[in-house]
Each structure stands twice: as C-alpha cells, then as structure tokens.
Amino acid sequence: MSDKSEPQNRRSRLITQGVQRSPNRAMLRAVGFGDGDFEKPIVGIANGYSTITPCNAGLNVLADRADRAVKAAGAMPQMFGTITVSDGISMGTEGMKYSLVSREVIADAIETACGAESMDGVVCVGGCDKNMPGAMIAMARMNIPGIFVYGGTIKPGHLHGQDLTVVSAFEAVGQHSAGKIGDQELLDIERHACPGKGSCGGMFTANTMSSIFEAMGMSLPYSSTMAAEDGEKAESAAESGRVLVEAIKAQLLPRQILTRQVFENGIAVCMALGGSTNAVLHLLPSLTRPRSPSRSTISKRFERKCLCCATSSPRAASSRPICTRRAASPR
C-alpha cells in the first residue's frame, strides 16, 4: 500500500511538473486540462470500441461513463483506442491467422500508451476474445493500478419459441448441409441469432474470461453477469472508474492482487461454469509474470476438485443471459 505522503500522480508528474514541462502542459491544456489539474493522477481509458463485431459495439458508452466517473473522482482521464478482430467473422478464412497475434498487439498498444504518457492507472474496456486477455496481460506487465470493464454479454435471440446464439447459426449451416432444414429456415436463424450488442451468448471465451477476471479481483463483483444493453452495465463501468481512482490513491497494484491463490480461484470458477478451454491459452501469459504461480498450476487436479455446475451454452441449450437471471458468478 502507499505512503500517504507520496503524491497521487507518481508517474504523470514526470510530464506535468516543473518549468521544463511547460510545453507538455501546453499540449495537455489543449485537451481539457486546467490550472488545477496538473497535480491530479492521469488515468488511461483503454477503449476497445469498434463496429467490427457486436462484442465491442457498445463499449463507447461504457468507456464514456468510466471517463466521466474518473474525472468526478478527482483524476484526469485520457481515452485511447485499441484494435479488434472478430473470430466469429474471420472463422474459416485466412483472417484467423491474425486472431491470436492481435492479443499481443492489443497488450502492446495499452502498455505503449500508458508508458509513453506516464499514466498513473488504467481502466481497460473490452468485450471480445482477444482484447480481454490482451488487457489483462498489459495490466500485469505494467503493474500500475488497473481495472477491467467487461462490455457484457449479448441477449439471446428468439425463433419459434427457442433461444438462439451465434452457435445456432453455425449449427444451422450443418443442418442445412445435411438437408434437415431449408434455405428459409437457415435465413430466419441467421436473422435472429444475434439481436443486438454484446459478446457471444454462452460460456465461450469472452464470458469465460470475464468470469475469471471477476473471480481474480480485476473486475467489480457481479460485473461479468450483466448484459451489454442493460443499464446496470453502464453503472458498473462508472463505479469501476471510481474504484480505480481509489486504487491509485492506495497504490493497489495488479501483482499484489494476482497471487497464486487468486489464479487458482479463477481456474476453479472456469471449471465450475464449464468455461472455454481457451482460458488456458490466455492465462498462461499472465502466469509467467512475477508473483504468479507456475504453469503447472493448470492441471488435472482441478478437474477432480471442481465440479461443473452450470447449464449454459455450449454445454447446454441455455444461453448466458438466462443464467445471469438465476444467479451471479460464484463468490
């Protein structure tokens, strides 16, 4: 924890304090800083918004709420963007060769912006397979106060009294190829599978990683179970901004949070919820950071210790938003 005599702008004071930094302050004034703002901590808002995929299409609203909350809490927010690719759209094409690589590009982009501008903390806002682990890798690597805001899951589509997800469209392709459904049925499923903004509705990579992040203490409680288009998601984003400013004051750092027990909690939650095996792929880069457990932590013993107690897609027909109405993630 911090020495209360230390300034809150431990890092950013390098670019805001002293006669020699007058040109720096002149540029900051052009983006909204005033005379009383140069003693405040600077907080990066890493915004994964894009209209490439519904997973990230709603992030601008959340990033804006976090931005305003950070400023109201006494810090100075600075928003910047990160790239996004969509596995769901790229799947089956040469585009998938860019998928895992994009995670590293995202992590590097967040670290680059925060390092170059001497930011005191970061709020990472993401909602898809690669910007979520990319953000976590960046926060662990930089070890400055950080918090993750999940964009939220999509709500289920509906057709003929059945709930649909994007997987329904994939399955319909197989049914169509087998002659079990016709062209019109395939088109109807396509039109109804993804009804709005949010991450793929099931315990796929995004919802799996959001549950793990929450269990690990890098996101607010219950934030992983909120649907993207519900008002509580925006409120959670604002609260995340306020909490991050308090973490800066206390100098609560990611590596103080990401202990061996915390990683094991995250893995246990993944097993209990029947989460995506991609969790292994995305946790390993963080496991190599200081104060983290060895790679052998992810082992068969979790299969013996943790029972799967969820009934969400793809393990069952139920999509993620239905499960959120029943209960939040295990505490």
Compact overview of the structure:
The chain folds into two domains: 13-154 and 199-326, Rossmann fold (3-Layer(aba) Sandwich); 157-194, no CATH class. Helices cover 47% and strands 9% of the residues.
Question: How does this structure look, described?
Answer:
- The structure is a single chain.
- This protein is of the alpha/beta class and 331 residues long.
- The chain folds into two domains: 13-154 and 199-326, Rossmann fold, CATH 3.40.50; 157-194, no CATH class.
- The chain is 47% helix and 9% strand.
- It contains 15 helices and six strands.
- Helix 6 packs parallel to helix 13 and helix 9 packs antiparallel against helix 12 (260-272).
- The longest helix has 20 residues, at 231-250.
List the helices and strands and how they pair.
Blueprint: H1 13-16, H2 22-30, E1 42-47, H3 59-72, E2 76-81, H4 87-90, H5 99-116, E3 121-126, H6 131-142, E4 146-150, E5 157-159, E6 162-164, H7 166-177, H8 183-192, H9 205-216, H10 231-250, H11 254-257, H12 260-272, H13 278-287, H14 301-305, H15 320-326
Parallel strand pairs: 1-2, 1-3, 3-4
Antiparallel strand pairs: 5-6
Helix pairs in contact: 3-10, 5-6, 6-13, 7-8, 9-12
By DSSP (H or I, 4+ residues per run), the number of helices equals 15
The top-level CATH class of the largest domain is: Alpha Beta
Q: Spans of 5+ residues with little confidence (pLDDT < 50)?
A: 321-331
User: For this structure, what is the CATH homologous superfamily of the largest domain?
Assistant: Response regulator
> What is the domain total for the residues?
2
- β-strand percent reads 5-15%
Q: For the record, give the distance between the C-alpha atoms at the N and C termini, rounded to a whole number.
A: 25 Å
Tell the overall outline: globular
CATH topology of the largest domain: Rossmann fold
Structural class: alpha/beta
Report Rg.
21 Å
> How many E-type strands?
6
| Average pLDDT | 90
